[in-house]
Structures are given as C-alpha cells and as structure tokens.
Amino acid sequence: MAVSSVLAAPGPHPGVGAGAPLWAVEAWRALAALLVLWAHWGAALGWPGTGPQGWLRFAFTGVDLFFVLSGFVFAPVLLQRPVPSLRAYGLRRVLRIYPAYLAALALYVALAWAAGRPLAHLPEHLLMAHLQSREMAFYYNPAFWSLPVEVGFYAVLPLLGAWLAQGRARAALSPRPWLPRWLLLGLLALSLRLTLLGLADGAQQNRAYVLLNHVPGLLVEFLLGAWVWQRAQRPLPRAAAWAWGLAGLTGLCALAALFVGLSATAPAWLGGQMGLGAALCFAALLLASLQLARPGGAVLAAARWGGRLSYSLYLLHMAWLAPALAWSERWGAAMGSALALAGLLASCLALHWCVEEPARRWGRSRAMRWERGGVAAPVA
C-alpha cells in the first residue's frame, strides 16, 4: 500500500532528550511527506523519475520513513521510562492526530459527495478503524491507510514500555545475565512480519494480509527507529557515521533499482514488502544525520517548518491532485503543478494554524497539568 504517518507524524515528545538534534528529525519528516507527495502526484503529472523505469516510483516508502521517525520520537517511552499517566498520554496522542484528521476527512467526504460518490465506510473512518481492506482504506484518501497503524502503535507503546521496564528491573536484581527483553521484542516483531508475509494473500486480502499492514506486521519498523534513538545516546565516530550514511543510501538505491526491475513481472503487493528494507536504510541514514552540525538561517527554518507542516501535507495533498491535473492540462505540467503546490501549501498552513497547532497546545497543556498534579506548566 502506498501512502505514514508520521505520518501521521507525531509531535516531539519531551522524553526525547535535550541533546537530541530534533531539527534533523523535523527535516526527515519534511522529506517523508515530500516522498509521499511525489509518489501520488509524480506519475499523474509526469514528474521526473516517475516513469516506468524511474527510481522515484520508490518514493512510496516515505511512509516507512514516517514509521521509523515515530519509533525514534517515542523511544524514551519504550526504552527508558514508561508514561507517568496513561490519561495524559492518551489525551496528547488523540489531540495531536485526530482534530486535523477529522478536518481533512470532512474535506474528502465533501469532495466525494460533490462527485456523486456514496459515502461508504464513513463510520470506520470516523473511528480511524478503516484499515480492514484496501478499498475501505483508500476510499476517501489513499494516504489515510497508515493512520490506524500509528494509532495502534500508540496504543501498545505504554504496555510494551512497562514490560521492558519490568525486564530491566529483574535483570538488575538477577545474579545471572538475561537476554534483554528489547532484543526479544525485536525478534518477535521480525518473526511476526515474516510469518504474516508467508501467509498473506494480496489478491484475496486475507486476515494475514490485513495484519501485515497493521502493527503486528509493521512494529519492526517502529523498533528500528527506537534502536536509532538508543544508539544515538552514545557518541558515534565520524567515520562510523559516514559508513552508516553510505550504507543507507546505497541500500535505498539498490532497493529502488530492484523495485523498478521487478515491477513489470512481480505481483503488485510484493513492492510494498520492500518497505522493511527501506525502513532499515532510512534508520541508517537517520543515525548518520544525527551527527550533523546544526545548520543556521534558512536551512534550519526550512527544516523546522517542513516538519511542522508534514502532517498537514500528508493529509491534504490528495485533495489538490485533481486541480493539478486540470490546470496542467490547461497551462502545462510545470504551471499546473506550481499552482497546485501553492494551493496545497496555503491549505497546509491554514490546517496547521487553525486546527492542528491549537489542539496540540491545548492537549499538551492539559496533559502537563494532569502529570504534575494540577500545576500548569509552560507549553514548549
């Protein structure tokens, strides 16, 4: 499935740590959203690299990058300390994801109604439980498919964090070494992925195929991001950082070439299973990028704003594809694409300022009061 997320993309968590170069994470979020945009717009508008032999057709793996980034951002909850308040945690996650999604869903429902399409699967989309079949997941907006995966990750994260914390406590008291629970969790996630892959039937969309596109099949991608966070807590020599970055970039290029070479003969669902390899490469690139010096001026501002608008862009870009096609037919692909991108940017800013950011700030403020016994704390 081509788009996640992140992204739905979640906001920075206070547990990431003051030393973490969050500007790099924001820049990767922006890139992930642009990859998703390129995957959905490129072929339709004739953009470079999206033809039958174009490597940029592999841009649909931007959703896998979103999953890796989510795992990185929430790694402290998983590997360091569980959430202090489930109520506060739940409120923050709901208000970070759902209000902007609901506003975007209302837009796509209105577009479907105006086009005379039946408003099918609406209850499932309202509950963000629409990843039950390809047709249901893609009905209003193909990019919506990854949001239930993010929500599923948020739901299991506190439980997994508590389980791992219990394992650390037991290991500290035990006189003999134990296999770390985080390693067991990674092996279990990988085993589930491979088992479901063997049982999945993309043509019939059987239960294994559906679970392959939920947390049981995609948890390993989140765990890759968590591993990057854990490794980044220790200094990484410059030579090692270059090696990780080169390995990640080489792997992505190889996967893109393989995807292009197989796309003519392999079944369509096989390309989606390259996402795990892409997630591994993105994890290597993310680890390498964390060693970069913080940029200044326009580069830093672009990284920050790209990250802030990544969720809005992810939600809204498909609404502007039809105008882009119409304007391209009238004025040419370059002018039509430019006008549609300008409209998309304006709508992303409106959604961010009017819905996403106010909901995020209110949720963070309320959650901090709950976590600190009713004492209000400043909003970062």
Number of domains: 1
Please tell me the overall pLDDT.
88
Euclidean distance between termini CA atoms: 35 Å
Structural class: mainly alpha
Low-confidence stretches: 1-20, 374-380
- Overall geometry: globular
Query: What is the count of β-strands?
Result: 0
Secondary-structure element pattern, one letter each: HHHHHHHHHHHHHHHHH
Q: Radius of gyration, Cα only, in angstroms? A: 21 Å
Query: Can you give the helix content as a percent range?
Result: 55-70%
Q: Main beta sheet, described?
A: none
Total count of helical runs of at least 4 residues = 17
**Beta-strand residue percentage:** under 5%
Question: Characteristics of this structure?
Answer:
disordered C terminus; globular; 17 helices; 380 residues; mainly alpha
Set down the secondary structure blueprint.
Blueprint: H1 22-45, H2 62-73, H3 75-80, H4 86-114, H5 122-126, H6 134-138, H7 147-173, H8 181-199, H9 207-212, H10 215-232, H11 238-262, H12 268-272, H13 275-289, H14 297-308, H15 310-316, H16 321-331, H17 333-371
Helix pairs in contact: 1-2, 1-14, 1-15, 1-16, 2-10, 2-13, 4-17, 7-10, 8-10, 10-13, 11-13, 16-17
